[in-house]
Amino acid sequence: MLATGNLRTFILAKKIMKRSICMLIHKIVGMKKLFTILVIGVLLFTVSCKDKPTKEPQKPIKSQVVEKVVKVPTPEPEPVVEEVEPPRPEDKYFLIAGSFAELHNAESFKVQLESDGYTSQIIERPDGPNGEFYKVSYMSFYDRNEAYNELRAARGSVGNEEVWLLIKR
């Protein structure tokens, strides 16, 4: 029984060795193909990179230069067309910074606002409510939402709690 087991082991080892040798031969053949391709590539590269013979420079041809004066008429400038923006609708909403009974007080406050960088104006409404006062605005708007947003922002800052909105009808 011992001899049969050794024989089976021997046959199995022989089969394994045979497979290993076949795989090794396939790898060697594959490497030979790779080596052959690499050698051919190197040869092609070296052959194609040789310096090409240069041509002799051509001798310059002597020629006569004839200058011809051509008068080119200067084009007239095209008229400039200015784009005219449609007139902006008149502002309807005004942030009022002060209201004065005397015109000269309103004018001096207006000058002060303008020196601070605002676009100020004096609004008179003799027929409206508080018609006896001169209202001094420091911002004006055509858009209602923009005016109310700016009013909220102004009232939220310190020193501007008394700002109010005048709406022209």
What would you note in describing this structure?
The protein is an alpha+beta fold. The chain folds into two domains: 1-44; 93-167, Sporulation related repeat (Alpha-Beta Plaits). It has three helices and four strands. The chain has a four-stranded antiparallel sheet. The longest helix has 47 residues, at 2-48. The protein is elongated, with a radius of gyration of 50 Å. The model has no long low-confidence stretch (mean pLDDT 81).
How does the SSE layout of this entry go?
Elements: H1 2-48, E1 93-100, H2 103-115, E2 121-124, E3 134-141, H3 144-156, E4 164-167
Antiparallel strand pairs: 1-3, 1-4, 2-3
Produce a short descriptive summary.
This protein is an alpha+beta fold.
